[in-house]
């Protein structure tokens, strides 16, 4: 065996592997090997590698050398067990278990009791002290599992046959069937098998095993596995390993049983004994919920020796993995066997508390703690939650597709949703599935519930894009035009339900919502009673360390003083994007209209003069809140006609006025202006710097307002740090033109006041990224506008495409996640990299940041760290997430200590 590398060694005994070989042995195999080498009681066995699976799937037939290697390892296994596979007198039986690198719960299959046939069933009975019932029950389970998973026999045919056997005998439970009944049932099962498969159930034990192995290989490409991988973004080419494990039996009587356990509470992280045990049963029975389990603590009474041993093993595993582990075990006649372990899944709250506990216990250091929590988990903890103290009735549980807690009256159409929302009502839009026509209703609704589709369905994608609560794939609900039914309930239009987009639970009635303690902590107004709460303490501790470790600064996107103030409490180190156009709305619309409709320079200047003091006041408020920290102000970006009424509305208004013989002079003038400014494609039209170069005085007014506000703050004794940012630049000449004028104004306004104002640009047009070296000559900073860069890089308009076809692209795997949610590293990311490198080469010390939505996305934050940006900017609520992920980018790049 020596000398074989992973590429041509296809089979590993458990004693040959270890926990770090997950790529090759899958999670289950690697951990079985680890436990074996720790000296824990694991049934003997071996693992066939993921490479063998990849080869098998690539060629579609058997892999050269694999059979021989399996034979070699099977012989060793037989020797160790003192039994031969399927030996009629004294059979060795094995389980054939799938196990990929990433756990894919319920996605692939396992076949137990391989090696049983018409002869060895008697041998098994003899092994079990003449227990015929047990032997025949094991045999019928094999035919059932093998038929279903290896040969695609419809599972319900077996279920039906089992049901018939019980009905014929007039009993309710499987356990009421005796050996003879089960023997007959095996006969029926074999007929079912032969009818569907076209040949008899294979009697050769080795053939059974080989067929099961190949079936596990193929299950990697089963529809549901493919779908699951897409949703969880697991690469499609990893393949699964296969574990062949000597069978142990928990169903040999009251001194046997099977169970699952966690080393800590995966819900809260609390230490203690968590698990379930089922006497006289095989592992699959626990999962299937055939009989009621008892709490693991009860095992102490049932079998003290095994219980003590199990607790000892759990402590060993925690000590070894340095983390919460989950476990599958079986007791065969008083002898404990470990069948599986892995670092266990946990809730977001448990992730933080467990990490902090493990620091206290001296098991891990602070850096390691940061590796164990994620920004996504922190974000989850920041959503308001349902207060479940009133024990609201759960209607159903489905896929939590977009987090949040929402309640409202049920509506079934987009029209009804918009109608009721306009009356100020909370509504939940319930649809079988959504399509682009439902967009208005989705926007109007508090939350969305669908009966079909998973995390990449239209509803899920669009809801996440909008930050709206969504539960989808609730396939137990039956949707009709004005009601839906679930279980015994009928919910009519107008009835109130509550949906939890994190857990996927749907409740009847209005469940009260309580604010997140973690947000209260960030806000600094935490109820003192909660300050010592383990979760809050853990978050505090990890965030403090994150701030020490990260290199990236985190700023916020904020347009108003209050937004900026909140973001600062959340840890923002400045404003990365203030969108000045938001300052043109509300009661200022009229001034903007005057500006647009101005005939001649004088009227225009008057309108600008009226706007300037308002803008200056806005900026001053923002600068005050961010005193001492940089504030990037973007000059106006959107096309001006966005501030005018719509063409349709105006046309109707003018027509009606004319009919009535009223004067509509102003409206007519406006209509003409709107017609004149109408653009086929406003996204690519007259906006950003283009607007500034065409409308005289517009940028100048904004620059003056910024400079005046800065001087005003300096006079108050504050320290303003404004940065003027020019949007949509594609050529250095554009920026130079704006810059020359701006510098003149700044010099004039600032005089010798202690105010420094930087001038820079957004990099959001691909041409700007590709000519960044030139542009850097005229820019003191770059801020990547990754929303526009994505739109223009891919050539699709965000507002039009997300609802229209992204769901389909996600379904097809063209991208794993919307490029607007997480940066497309290879394409758009490449533009960012080119611009960063060339910009810094031209101007060392050039300040680099990002202000698109990606600034708050964990994956993207890691990318921006790698590229070497100075900061990311994101919405106030994402600031803590970005702080955490910026630190994770640092510690994840370093090997665990
Ligand atoms: P899953 O990944 O779905 O949990 P497993 O491969 O772990 O599938 O097996 C399914 C069930 O069968 C589990 O409860 C497991 O404990 C049990 N099982 C697997 N192999 C054996 C074995 N050799 N002896 C006894 N029970 C087994
Ligand atoms: Mg398992
Ligand atoms: Mg932009």
Describe this structure in words.
The protein is of the alpha/beta class and 897 residues long. Helices cover 46% and strands 18% of the residues. Helix 24 packs antiparallel against helix 25 and helix 27 (698-715) crosses helix 28. One magnesium ion (MG) is lined by residues 637, 727, 764, 785, 787-788. One magnesium ion (MG) binds next to helix 31.
> What is the residue-mean pLDDT, rounded to a whole number?
92
Number of helices: 35
Structural class: alpha/beta
Give the cofactors and ligands.
adenosine-5'-diphosphate, magnesium ion
> Strands across the major sheet, in which order?
14-24-23-16-17-18-19-15
Give the low-pLDDT segments. Answer: none
Largest sheet: 8 strands, mixed
Calculate Rg over CA atoms.
33 Å
What's the β-strand tally?
33
Hey, roughly how much beta strand do the residues contain?
15-25%
Which secondary structure elements does this structure contain, and how are they paired or packed?
Layout: E1 11-13, H1 22-37, E2 45-48, H2 50-59, H3 66-81, E3 84-85, E4 91-92, E5 94-100, E6 110-114, H4 120-127, H5 132-151, H6 155-169, H7 179-197, H8 205-219, H9 223-232, E7 240-246, E8 257-264, E9 271-279, H10 283-288, E10 294-295, H11 299-302, H12 304-321, E11 325-332, E12 335-343, H13 348-360, H14 366-371, H15 375-382, E13 385-386, E14 394-397, E15 399-402, E16 405-411, H16 414-422, E17 427-431, H17 439-444, E18 447-450, H18 458-466, E19 469-472, E20 478-480, E21 483-486, E22 489-492, E23 496-500, E24 505-508, E25 513-514, H19 517-523, H20 534-549, E26 553-557, H21 561-569, E27 575-579, H22 589-597, H23 601-625, E28 630-634, H24 647-659, H25 665-677, H26 689-694, H27 698-715, E29 721-726, H28 732-750, E30 758-763, H29 766-770, H30 772-776, E31 781-784, H31 786-794, H32 798-812, H33 828-842, E32 847-850, H34 858-867, E33 871-874, H35 879-892
Parallel strand pairs: 3-4, 16-17, 17-18, 18-19, 26-27, 26-33, 27-28, 28-29, 29-30, 30-31, 31-32, 32-33
Antiparallel strand pairs: 1-2, 2-7, 5-6, 5-7, 8-9, 8-11, 9-10, 11-12, 13-25, 14-24, 15-19, 16-23, 20-21, 21-22, 23-24
The protein binds adenosine-5'-diphosphate and magnesium ion (2 copies).
């Amino acid at each position: 065996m020596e000398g074989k590398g992973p590429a041509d060694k296809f089979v590993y005994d458990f004693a040959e592997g270890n926990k770090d070989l997950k790529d090759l042995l899958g999670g289950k195999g690697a951990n079985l090997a680890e436990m074996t080498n720790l000296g824990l009681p694991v049934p003997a066995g071996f693992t066939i590698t993921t490479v063998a699976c990849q080869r098998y799937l690539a060629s579609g037939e058997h892999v050269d050398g694999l059979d021989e290697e399996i034979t070699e390892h099977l012989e060793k296994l037989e020797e160790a067990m003192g039994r031969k596979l399927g030996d009629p007198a004294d059979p060795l039986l094995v389980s054939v278990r799938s196990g990929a690198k990433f756990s894919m719960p319920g996605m692939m299959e396992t076949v137990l009791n391989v090696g049983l046939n018409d002869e060895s069933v008697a041998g098994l009975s003899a092994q079990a002290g003449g227990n015929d019932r047990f032997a025949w029950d094991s045999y019928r389970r094999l035919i059932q599992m093998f038929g279903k998973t290896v040969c695609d026999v419809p599972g319900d045919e077996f279920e039906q046959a089992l049901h018939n056997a019980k009905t014929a005998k007039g009993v309710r439970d499987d356990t009421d069937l005796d050996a003879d009944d089960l023997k007959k049932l095996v006969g029926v099962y074999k007929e079912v098998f032969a009818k569907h498969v076209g040949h008899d159930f294979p009697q050769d034990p080795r053939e059974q095993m080989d067929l099961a192995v190949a079936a596990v290989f193929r299950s990697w490409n089963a529809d549901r596995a493919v779908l699951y991988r897409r949703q969880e973004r697991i690469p499609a080419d990893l393949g699964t390993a296969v574990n062949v494990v000597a069978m142990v039996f928990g169903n040999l009587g009251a001194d046997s049983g099977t169970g699952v356990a966690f080393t800590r509470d995966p819900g809260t992280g609390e230490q203690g004994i968590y698990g379930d045990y089922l006497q006289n049963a095989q592992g699959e029975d626990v999962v299937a919920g055939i009989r009621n389990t008892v709490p693991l603590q009860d095992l102490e009474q049932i079998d003290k020796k095994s219980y003590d041993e199990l607790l000892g093993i759990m402590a060993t595993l925690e000590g070894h993995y340095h983390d919460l582990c989950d476990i599958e075990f079986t007791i065969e006649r008083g002898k404990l066997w470990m069948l599986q372990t892995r670092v266990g899944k946990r809730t977001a709250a448990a992730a933080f508390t467990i990490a902090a506990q493990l620091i206290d216990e001296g098991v891990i250091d602070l850096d390691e703690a940061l590796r164990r929590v994620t920004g996504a988990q922190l974000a989850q903890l920041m959503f308001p939650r349902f207060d479940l103290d009133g024990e609201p009735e759960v209607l159903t549980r489905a896929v939590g597709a977009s987090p949040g807690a929402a309640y409202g009256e049920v509506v079934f159409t987009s029209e009804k949703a918009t109608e009721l929302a306009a009356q100020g009502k909370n509504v939940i839009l319930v649809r079988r599935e959504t399509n682009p026509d439902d967009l208005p209703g989705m926007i109007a609704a508090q939350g969305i519930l669908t009966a079909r589709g998973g995390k990449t369905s239209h509803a899920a994608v669009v809801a996440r894009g909008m930050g709206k609560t969504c539960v989808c794939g609730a396939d137990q609900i039956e949707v009709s035009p004005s009601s839906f039914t679930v279980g015994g309930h009928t919910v009519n239009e107008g009835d109130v339900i509550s949906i939890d987009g994190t857990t996927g639970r749907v409740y009847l009635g209005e469940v009260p919502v309580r604010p997140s303690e973690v947000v209260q902590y960030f806000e600094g107004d935490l109820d003192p009673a909660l300050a010592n709460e383990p979760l809050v303490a853990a978050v505090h501790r990890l965030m403090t360390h994150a701030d020490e470790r990260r290199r990236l600064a985190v700023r916020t996107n904020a347009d108003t003083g209050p937004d900026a103030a909140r973001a600062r409490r959340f840890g923002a180190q400045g404003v990365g994007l203030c969108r000045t156009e938001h300052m043109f709305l509300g009661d200022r619309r009229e001034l903007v209209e005057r500006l647009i409709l101005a005939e001649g320079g004088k009227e225009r200047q008057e309108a600008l003069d009226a706007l300037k003091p308002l803008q200056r006041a806005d900026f001053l408020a923002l600068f005050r809140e961010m005193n001492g920290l940089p504030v990037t102000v973007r000059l106006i970006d959107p096309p001006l006609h966005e501030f005018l009424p719509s063409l349709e509305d105006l046309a109707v208004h003018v027509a009606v006025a004319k009919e009535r013989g009223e004067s509509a002079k102003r409206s007519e003038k406006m209509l003409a202006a709107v017609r004149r400014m109408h653009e086929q494609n406003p996204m690519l039209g007259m906006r950003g710097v283009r607007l500034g170069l065409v409308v005289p005085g517009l940028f100048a007014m904004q620059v003056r307002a910024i400079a005046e506000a800065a001087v005003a703050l300096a006079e108050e004794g504050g320290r303003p740090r404004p940065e003027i940012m020019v949007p949509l630049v594609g050529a250095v000449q554009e920026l130079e033109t704006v810059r020359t004028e701006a510098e003149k104004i700044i010099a004039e306004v600032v005089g010798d006041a202690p105010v420094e104002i930087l001038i820079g640009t957004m990099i959001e047009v691909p041409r700007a990224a590709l000519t960044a070296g030139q542009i850097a000559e005229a820019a003191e900073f770059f801020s990547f506008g990754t929303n526009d860069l994505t739109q223009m890089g891919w050539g699709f308009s965000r507002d039009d495409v997300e609802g229209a076809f992204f769901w389909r692209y996600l379904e097809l795997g063209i991208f794993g996640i919307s490029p607007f949610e997480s940066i497309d590293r290879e394409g758009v990311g490449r533009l960012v990299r080119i611009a960063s490198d060339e910009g810094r080469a031209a101007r060392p010390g050039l300040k680099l940041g990002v202000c698109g939505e990606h600034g708050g996305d964990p994956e993207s934050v890691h990318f921006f760290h790698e590229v070497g940006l100075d900061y990311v900017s994101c919405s106030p609520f994402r600031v803590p997430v970005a702080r955490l992920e910026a630190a994770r980018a640092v510690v994840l790049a370093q090997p665990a200590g």
